[in-house]
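Hey, can you fold this one?
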Amino acid sequence: MIDTIVIGAGPAGVLAALRAADLGARTMLVTRAEFGGMAANDGPVPVRTLAHAARLIREARQLGQYGIVVGVPVLDYPRLLARVREVVDDVRAHSSLRRQIDSLGVIVHEHAGVARFADPHTIVTEAGLRLQADKIIICTGGVSRRLPLPGVELTSTHSDAWSLTSIPPSMLVIGAGATGVQIASIFNAFGSRIQLFQTGPRILPSEDADVSAAVAAAFRESGIVVHENFGAIESFEKTPTGVRMNFSRNGNRESAEAALAVVAIGWVADTAGLTLAAAGVEADHRGFVQVDGYLRTSTPHIFAAGDITGRQMLVPQAIQDGFVAASNAVLGPTMKIGDPVSPIGSFTDPEYAQVGLTEAKARETHDVATAVVRFDSTTRTIIDGRTVGFCKLIVDRTTCRILGCHVVGERAVEITQLAAVAIASGMRVDDLAHIPLSFPTYAGILAHVAASATRELNLKVSWQAHQAESMWHQF
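Sure. Predicted structure:
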């Protein structure tokens, strides 16, 4: 019998298999499709490639400002899709994790089809495999949530959007969370006429309110029609040129039409076909597998990691989950999942990113000071002609610890990674201000706003920070 079977070869599953084998367990990795899961094949890797193409289009349109004369950029979408496939293949072929998996002797079954439990120690797959193990780790991820409405079969998921073979002339994007705004931003750059719909009062509802407002304003400026508080969807129906969405607002029926309607309203656990009941594994009302602090399910020898738990559906957190779940499966329940600092961002136009608490959340339990530096006042953004956005720090007045960082604009995601290191290390804001980061850089913007926060708190500031802030204000 195999010691450990891992179901699913996304980030959580790959790390779980790697960790289990590293600890000496005889390990098998079973995946429905290809190695890498959604992250490599239908998520961050292909999506970031499309987002990079959108960035190149934006930058090509800037060339004239710098004396570089070229023609109007034209998108060859089939060629771009070919490039996406090249990138995905290269990532899989050069994956250091795959090499480590192979070197440790993990048995990998790709294209095994859907796996299901026959009993608590046995799984069978559509490909005809019947596998048994002492410990099992479920890492099958999540799938797009569907709307239970008439005509929903006429709509597309995020996966459908990324697999389009041509650019639709128009698109309705329903749901303005991270996935929805990314779809809207990328296809807007590619030339689609986009209408973005959010049932709540603002897009990106989990972001700081200032971030939501700034991204919505930038989207509108770029030509995206943003509908917030738009009402309740009643149905979808086919039209000669695409699909119509019918909705009601304040008692009035309205509609919107486009060639394509993409629903991006969140995720549910990918447990279809697993027959969890056969293994005694419990799930909540949304289908997410319930786990304790050690990532054990209701069946003690079965663990779950990553998106399927519904905790934080992000690649870095899935990787951490996989490590913890495998450690506990092999060594016994000794390692608890923590609450790590988790920077989150998206490669939209403009980019946005966050780490730590929003201002509203921070004010619930802290005496808060904030500092904001706008991108139209920082040297590097002016040089690059990318002056939309801001960097905002939220600081505890008593301890001077950084509680949160929120950025909108060019390289927002990269800036936030640096802020995450400062928060994770417990750095005071004046300590961050004292670091003489290179000039002119995007990272330096964080030092600038830290120096501003230091002055807001009336803290003693070093000569370096004083000079840095003075230099920023001079330019």
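Residues 231 and 249 are 4 Å apart (CA to CA). Let me know if you want another pass with a different chain boundary.
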